[in-house]
Task: structure prediction
Amino acid sequence: MPWCPICNNEYKEGITICQDCGCDLVEKETDIRKKITFGEADEMEELSEFLRINGIEQVETFFDEEENVTEISVVEKDSQKAEKMISIFWEQKEKIQKRDEEENEVEEIEEITEEDQTLVKTSSLYENSASKADDNKSSAYTLLLVGIAGIIVIILGMTDVLPIHLYGTSKYMTYGIMGTLFVLFIVMGMVSMKSYHIFSRKAESENSLQDTMEKWCLDTLKQEKIDSELFVTEENVTEEEKYFKRVKFMKEKLSQKFFNLDEAFLDHFVDEIY
Result:
């Protein structure tokens, strides 16, 4: 009598296809198939391939439309071995999934570390215009003072007011070289003084912008509001991860509100206001 290898229904002679499963009937009872598991189609295809690789050749998959699942069946004599192999398959699957999760955690930590290094680097490189103005002012006064004093010494030496005893060619070469050097100091001092005035004006504008940005941040970027947008669905977020996500969020909001901000200035400002 023909049997269905999927549902194990027995049919009359002459019938070759199972009316319920749609698969070919078998003649011997020893060839009766047994359902061993079911699940999503992709996972069942992967499991079927695993069983075949491990010596279970007569593996078949069948989609049950009523249950909306894919079933796997094997010849009954192979069912015990197949069940053992299925346990091994799911254990390996779980190990691979756990390893992937650990690798993703490591990648997230490395990404945070890179963001940390970038933030520290840009913040340490930033110098505001007021500091640059002070540096140029100090350099300008120093260079001008040295240059003017040097020129005075050369004039006094050439007119024999100072007891510097130089004669002939060596006298003119020495005073010529020293005079050129001190003139260069004066020129560099004037350039530094010009830069001082430029950075002073820029510092005023920068301080005004910074005050406006600070007031806007204190009025708009409240911690509760930021966290409500960033961490509504996230759980088990470390304080370090929260810090970098908050900083990134603040930078994005500030860039949208205030256009063409210098990256180093923005990093420094956010780090200070945080």
